[in-house]
Automatic annotation (TrEMBL):
Signal peptide residue numbers: none
InterPro entries attached to this UniProt entry: Glutaredoxin, Thioredoxin-like_sf
Alphabetical list of Pfam families matching this protein: Glutaredoxin, GRXCR1-2_C
Protein name: Glutaredoxin domain-containing protein
Domain Glutaredoxin, chain residue ranges per copy: 11-76
């Protein structure tokens, strides 16, 4: 029960969409808790990239709400679970062997991890040499690509 490419790291599935206040607040709370430990967290925004939502659904076997935390390939839980572990000091013990990271804000994406596609400029469409409009193969459904510096 481990998401792709999560061995040896902390992976947080969250959303930056403010549509459901409680969900957004839970995501912000977990991000803040993890930021306090000064470790690298692979943040996967399910609103910005449907691939991340698919990954989470496949790993969990059902569509679950976010946030969801994995540490070193092991599922830890959602917002309430992680908050309780943090308050009891258990979360710190789970993270203590991970290297401390003093990171600067990314100069390309400002830590959003996505930028507009450089091929189609975010339109999701390209025009071929024959003048035919096609779906851009480089970007996601929002016309975004992963930041080359953060990825």
């Amino acid at each position: 029960m481990c998401p792709p490419d999560c061995e040896g790291k902390v992976v947080l599935y969250f959303t930056s969409l403010r549509g459901v206040r409680k969900t957004f607040e839970n995501c912000c709370m977990l991000r803040l808790i993890l930021k306090g430990f000064q470790i690298h967290v692979d943040e996967r925004d399910v609103w910005m990239h449907s691939k991340f939502r698919q990954e989470l659904t496949e790993v969990m076997g059902a569509a679950l709400s976010v946030p969801r935390l994995f540490i070193l390939g092991r599922y830890i839980g959602g917002a309430e679970d992680v908050q309780l572990l943090h308050e009891e000091g258990i979360l710190g013990k789970l993270l203590e062997d991970l290297p401390v990271e003093c990171r600067q804000v990314c100069k390309i994406c400002a830590d959003v991890r996505f930028i507009p596609c450089t091929l189609c400029r975010g339109s999701c469409k390209i025009v071929t040499s024959l003048g035919i409009s096609e779906r851009c193969s480089e970007c996601n459904e929002n016309g975004l690509i992963m930041c080359p510096l953060c990825d």
